[in-house]
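Q: What does the predicted 3D structure of Phosphatidylinositol 4,5-bisphosphate 3-kinase catalytic subunit delta isoform look like?
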Amino acid sequence: MRQFCEEVAAHRQQLGWEAWLQYSFPLQLEPSARSWGPGTLRVPNRALLVNVKFEGSEESFTFQVSTKDVPLALMACALRKKATVFRQPLVEQPEDYTLQVNGKHEYLYGSHPLCQFQYICSCLHSRLTPHLTMVHSSSILAMRDEQSNPAPQVQKPRAKPPPIPLKKPVSVSLWSLEQPFCIELIQGSKVNADERMKLVVQAGLFHGNETLCKTVSSSEVSVCSEPVWKQRLEFDISIGDLPRMARLCFALYAVIEKAKKARSTKKKSKKADCPIAWANLMLFDYKNQLKTGERCLYMWPSVPDEKGELLNPCGTVRSNPNTESAAALVIFLPEVAPHPIYYPALDKQLQLREILERRGSGELYEHEKDLVWKMRHEIQEHFPEALARLLLVTKWNKHEDVAQMLYLLCSWPELPVLSALELLDFSFPDRHVGSFAIKSLRKLTDDELFQYLLQLVQVLKYESYLDCELTKFLLDRALANRKIGHFLFWHLRSEMHVPSVALRFGLIMEAYCRGSTHHMKVLMKQGEALSKLKALNDVVKVSSQKTTKPQTKELMHLCMRQETYLEALSHLQSPLDPSTLLAEVCVEQCTFMDSKMKPLWVMYSNEEAGSDGTVGIIFKNGDDLRQDMLTLQMIQLMDVLWKQEGLDLRMTPYGCLSTGDHTGLIEVVLHSDTIANIQLNKSNMAATAAFNKDALLNWLKSKNPGEALDRAIEEFTLSCAGYCVATYVLGIGDRHSDNIMIRENGQLFHIDFGHFLGNFKTKFGINRERVPFILTYDFVHVIQQGKTNNSEKFERFRGYCERAYTILRRHGLLFLHLFALMRAAGLPELSCSKDIQYLKLPVEKAKPPAFGAKTSGLKLASYFEDGAGRGPPWLGSERRALPGGGAGWRPPGSLGAVLLGGSVTCPERVEVQGDGAPC
């Protein structure tokens, strides 16, 4: 890996200025829409007022261009404007320049229209004038040369490692061995258990999640620090049938003595087993050679499992690095042949497959083979996306079937990204399958790869060897795009405290830094800033327990004014977004929040960025942000999918990044406030604040006078629809007025995603979450522009919800696969397949789209209610009177039924959830 990364770094020094610009500052574009429909915020082809200045000059020029113009046309206009103002001949060419966003490491270049750049779109929606700087190509080349200088070597450079020696000419093919596979269990060490119990070792062979044969157990021995077995364990599988990625799994546990068991009932109780530790071992090394000889396995402490499983096949194959205190097992893998035993190379497998075909189909297939295996050639030709299903029915403990499967894989059509992602799961450990999946993923664009990067880093935990195709793929793309490299580094760095992955992740980080020495300096600067923020947060926590908040805040400012703090916290790229420059820290605006962990609120200013130069970050120390990061990633993915269909729901997936053990950063969304604060500030009495239906609308009126109010209400309507659907699909709980916010321009967004996938809060055994998402009457009051029977506006809102959910249902499998890959992260609410069942979006198979244009409202309501496989969702937490229906309450109905059932009128009363917080 190191050699590969250093070669990439050397090649990068030879890049031209345009190619180097693409690596260092990749474009930030809006998703391109395939079709635009009514209700979307389409950017029209109209005049755009821009402000452009030239690098090294204070003069700037303001002029109009079309939103459909490309950057080259804008730069040509700027050069003509400059020549006209200064009465100089036009000699400079626009091809020698590029456009930089003022105060940011963000550039506009290429053949994309201006309206497709995220910065320009943001300015258009906010009605702000874009401020840009013309940068000459010579400045870009100077940056390239400066950053290409090799970092000073701490030690003498080592020579290239010698090539891996070839296989010995005399070797034995694994498939020529028919004797059963066995091992010898010798002894244990540092075992801690109750002396009244007995020790037992259980061993099993696995290929992914599949058990290759029946597990075996050792005899019981008395508890002691150094238990001795010296026992042969034989498995019901021949050596020749071991698959290449087979792993040997051990579990050490204690049981009650037999004398005590005799008094119990005949039914054996699994509760009598007390798991102590586990360990896994790959049977083949990275050179395909079967391991032999004595091995000492330092084990990992067992964690109680709901299923009562003792073995942990999906756990790491690395030994516990804490060798001084970890329990250990000593085993012996016998040498069954006079020469090294190798798993046959692929060409040998293909040769065997041809031999088997010549023997006749009668010997190839057993009568127990199911239809999927028998129809594998038809699947390859007509249903290649079903490769994962075929791999799951392959008998990996039969080398003939393995050869057949790998032969098919050689000619299998390239898969779409969705199917390739599924093959990265732990259920498919074969190296050839993994290489095929990576081959299919190479067509991902940088933006698409960035969207799935969080899952791909977690999949690294499933890899059995340090040097694998997935690692090479990620390093290759990271070294070609600095943004991908930035987030790859931090996703790896955030889990360096986990012993089972520290070695692997550390080596990958080292390889990346050797391939991008200048970026390493930038990352080190960010690391120093985070260390200072952690120390500052510790000071705030201690002080807040002894003094008042103003006194603690003053102490915080005093620390931040120290030279070491100012130097570490200023002039760095934001870890949340490497294109954002955190220039000068505004000490007086910095504070801390009142929650238990006292998060730090740090504000920065950047004069070069003009009026848009204020940036804020929240530093958290003590909270696990990985679940928030995953939830925001999914909301961002939904936003991309909607925009690709021409539906812009004005979502706000703010930045969130886990940077270490229970530490991380959150982006401050400026010019926004919580629903609770708005209701409180716009009400005369705090006790009735939650029931003031006019509070939100009045607040928006105060922030958006005149014609701007209609635009703000439309922003509110779009974003409210988006978050209604997003929180429903993801099963996000603990929603209340303190974690729902509104920006001054009308955009609504949610924060704090501590519970998802239907893991709702309960109090005294009662579920506090009686609704799947929040749509209170004051929200509807804003949507209807304060009018009681404005059914037209609510119809638009209903249409947004319907269309948004329809789009997500078409991509249901994508969300299922991404959440499945995240199981390796070990999140408390996403640890097994059962947790993902909540996400089961209905996916039509060989049927007309249930959400097509000709679908009736009743059918749509049925799919919306029943398709997700859970109880009927309600519209908000308030009960509503039937529109024009006389007396009585409308019973809770499905979301589709409510949204398709007419307008909403003013309720006679409001039901408040849980602790009294408005919902």
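A (community wiki): The structure tokens above were generated from the sequence. The domain at 672-919 is CATH 1.10.1070.11 (Phosphatidylinositol 3-kinase Catalytic Subunit; Chain A, Domain 5). The longest helix spans residues 517-544.
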